[in-house]
Amino acid sequence: MVKDTRLSARLWAFANWAVIGFFILNLFGMIATVVTSSFATRWLGTWLPAGWTTRWYSSAWDEFQLYDVLSVTFQIVFLVVFLSGLIGVPAAYALARRDFPGKKLVMLLFLLPLLVPPITFGIPLATVLYRAGLAGQMSGVVLANLVPTVPFVILVMIPFIEQIDTKIEAAARVFGANTFKLFIYILLPLLAPGILAALLLVLVRTIAMFELTFLTAGPTSQTLVVALYYAVFAAGVRAVQSIDAMAVIYMVTTLLWLLIALRFVNPTQIVARAKR
Amino acid sequence: MTIHAASFRELRLDRLSRDFGTHNALKDVSLTIQQGEFIALLGPSGCGKSTTLNIIAGLLPATGGGIWLDDKRIDPLRPEERGFGMVFQNYALFPHMSVNKNIGFGLKMRGTPKAEIERRVAEAVGLVRLQGQTEKLPGQLSGGQQQRVAIARAIVVEPPLVLMDEPLSNLDAKLRLEMRAEIRRIHNTLGATTIYVTHDQEEALSLADRIVVMRDGQVRQVGIPEDLFSRPDHLDVAEFMGFRNKIAGKAASVSGEHATVAIDGAAILGRARNTIAQGAAAHLAIRPEDLHPVAAGSVGLKAQVISTEFRGREFVGFARMADGTDLSFLAHDKLAPGSEVTLAAEPDRVLVYGAAA
Amino acid sequence: MSDTASSIPLSQRLAARGLDGLTLLVVPAILFSLALFIYPFFYGLFLSFNPKAGGALANYQRFFSDSFLYGTIATTLWLALPVTVLTLLMAIPIAFRVRTMKHQRLLTTILVIPITLGTVLVAQGLLNYLGPQGWFNRALLTMGLISTPVKLLHNYWGVMISLVITGFPFTFLLTLSYLSGVDPALEQAGATLGAGPWQRFKHILLPLLLPGLAITFCLSFVQAFSVFPSAVLLGAPAGPTRVISIAAYQAAFEEYDYSMASAVAMIMGVVQLSIVVAVLAARGLLYRGPAGGGKG
Fold it and tell me: What is the DSSP secondary-structure string of B123-156?
């Protein structure tokens, strides 16, 4: 890159780094506060708590019935991951390989749920799901979460599929592979990294998806993030440390999967989906 | 050698057409290929040669006509049911499979027992001389090695027909010559029938038993290399076969095999290649290597030299005639740009085409 | 000699237009999106014109005559627009700084954390961190910058800060991904032709980047405009940060008036869409070709 060494340029660079440094400092401060608080016996008006304990974790586990919440969360998340892969990957394959009339319209159909924020389409969606008797239970939550994840898988997979030379598929056919064998021996192995990346991103996004789950979940179908919201909303009923312990459990769950996902994808992919 | 091509008597393309808009169009392509022949489909890009090959392979549907293997109609069959071997332009090797797995893929799809797959793959590896590379992935091989894998993969299934789609176009010049010889050697060893698509006339001339020249989705001429090289039937085929100088004139006289064309006051004698009407427009086609400067005042094409380039033994010259026609020729000496030159060729090396061409 | 097919079968004609068995793989996804995205939208639209009481437009009349309801639009815009502009202004120079960095991945990984954690956790964290006894106020007090703790919770600023914390990384990563699509050789070419850093930015990079920035602006704005949990948890949901999504939520789940809730959701969608359409229309005037060199 073209290097600039004038004083004004250096000051400008310094200002940039100062902003990013300040941002990251506060971000970590915020996270550290939650973690510290979750291990604190009493923490009032001092830099650090009076003493340390792990009892909030066991109390949070019981108070918030975290075992149930976690098992519901993972059932929902894995159902969403599985179904969005099942519906999304074949659709992405068709869209990557075929040009048909109305394709632009179909692409728009899949782009919209990603552009429109969940709370906007979530309210009419929740209304429909309640009328259909699906909201308030796990199936409704799964269906609602699939609305953005199916298009997400499609848009992430299309460029991935496009980069596989169609000649390779033609070769497999010429050498005797029928559609099923083509899929098992050629497409699946070649697409595996892309599918893995897309589904991991879906997984991370679904764990953290608050709005759609919040709007459609009943008492027995709350995910961790919704349970956390209710706990914070009703703060004062329970000890702050207990809520923080739950927040740490949520953070660990999410960040663990994020770390796994980041082994396969670039961080920018989490926000920037397919390039248009 | 136990790899042998499955046998049939003849493959017949019967008025094959593909008619969707203008792209990839094909019009009434008919051709009969005998068992064991090496056929080259030759033509400029967009002439329909690759489309023809893909229709034979079953990768593209034809919209008319049929393909017959002896008396069995095969064009309704899906590509995986035809049992042909194919070498693709970019090889299309399966990037996630080792060399062995790539070569054995076709056999595996046919449900061949494991032990036999191993034996036949090992033979094919020997045939294309890839011993010691068999556990590598395609990405770890050089272009020439990938090419060999692609060929081995196509022949190991002992196909009745091997299809090759510009297999050498991605190799450098030296490797291309080497692989050309290799392809011919393998064809001879197997006694296979090969259809080879190329836009390189030199490649077609050196490899093929018969060449099919295509243009605009149609077959223009079918013939043995020697005929195509020296006696193209049409002006456009001649141009494509290296008769790069195309000069317009008027047919002065026609007598049997010979015709005289008046150009810029000179009467040039050549061989008539089609029906030429006396007094009608006609074209001369001459290879640059047959066109040489002659003494000023002799019968020939008058032109002004633009430049000359040294080519080792001789000079390649470029000149322009008064009517703007560009000529290329060979000369023993360097010529000064701007100087006047008269160019002539042996009458036997001059082809004359009437307006019908 | 042969039985050449004279007419082209329908299946082949369809295949030539890209419609064959393979294309059908897209059908489940289309049906799914139609059933759970398009249908609910029209259902909501229909519902909003069938109010519990009054004529077809009663919901909308009520919304626009009650300042407690129509005021939410201004409240939300007053949060969303400054946040979007601020994060974009921060993101552009920093993205320029970062794009040539070797260890870019570490920074992008750190920044993706707040997005991944989501608004609820950020709200919970900020409740502790920004409180009167929290580390933020303590640090400012210790440095002597303030004499009494700043009130940053349960008001406008709390929501604003939480939006910046989740919004900035989003905007930044999006900007960075667009910026990395610009060929660095173009800037070097500009430098060899005598353009200084500011001129290079203004005449070469900015024009190539603007379409991407327009999209970034839209996405960031739409995110900020739909602020919900942090407005409840960190703001004053009954007053200064009563954003439009709170109004919609209350109508649906506290008053059980789905018709009114749908009307609010439609209004929310219309406001978002009109800003997005305005920005994209302006984008239509910009250069949108490849941002690489001549090749390709």
Answer: HHHHHTT-TT-TTS-GGGS-HHHHHHHHHHHHHT
User: Do the Cβ atoms of A64 and A231 come closer than 8 Å?
Assistant: yes
Judge: B82–A175 Cβ closer than 8 Å, yes or no: no
Helices C258-283, C39-48: inter-axial angle, 10-degree rounding: 120
CATH class of the domain defined by B10-235: alpha beta
Say whether B14 and C2 touch across the interface (CB within 8 A): yes
CB B100 within 8 Å of CB B138: no
Chain C residue numbers touching A32 (CB-CB < 8 A): 135
Residue C294 lies in a domain: no
- Residues 33-92 on C with a CB inside 8 Å of A are 33-34, 36-41, 43-45, 47, 90
Give me the CATH number covering residue C170: 1.10.3720.10
Residue A30 and residue A128 in one domain = no
Structure tokens at B119: 């034996």
* This model's pTM is above 0.80: yes
Provide CB contacts within 8 A for A205, sequence distance 6+.
Answer: A148, A149, A152, A270
C138 close to A (CB below 8 A)? yes
Q: How many Å lie between the alpha carbon of B103 and the closest alpha carbon of chain C?
A: 27
Asked whether the beta carbons of C77 and C227 are under 8 A apart, the reply is no
The single residue listed with the structure tokens 């590896």 is B125
Residue B331, beta-bridge partner list: B315
- Residue A215 to residues A142, A152, B229, C218, C229, Cα–Cα distance (Å): 12, 20, 78, 24, 12
Q: What is the pLDDT along chain B (357 residues), one digit of tens a residue?
A: 344 555 788 999 999 988 766 566 888 999 999 999 999 999 998 888 999 999 999 998 888 889 998 888 998 888 988 889 999 988 999 999 999 999 999 999 999 999 999 999 999 999 888 999 999 999 999 988 999 999 999 989 888 899 999 998 888 888 888 889 989 988 988 888 999 999 999 999 999 999 999 998 999 999 999 999 998 999 989 988 989 999 999 988 888 888 999 988 888 999 998 888 888 899 999 999 999 999 888 889 999 999 999 988 889 999 999 999 999 999 998 899 999 999 999 999 999 998 764
- Tell me the ipTM for this assembly: 0.86
pLDDT digits (tens, 9 = 90+) for C89-101: 999 988 888 887 7
* Coil/strand/helix, residue A246: helix
Range of the domain at A261: 56-271
> How do residues A133-172 score in pLDDT, each as one tens digit?
998 899 999 999 999 999 999 998 998 898 888 999 999 9
B76 touches C: beta carbon within 8 Å? no
Same domain, A96 and A131: yes
Q: Which fold has domain B242-354?
A: OB fold (Dihydrolipoamide Acetyltransferase, E2P) (2.40.50)
- Residue C29 Cα to chain centre, angstroms: 24
Residues 6 or more apart in contact with residue A20 via CB below 8 angstroms = C94, C107
Longest dimension (CA), chain A: 75
Q: How many domains does chain C have?
A: 1
- C12 in reach of chain B (CB within 8 A): yes
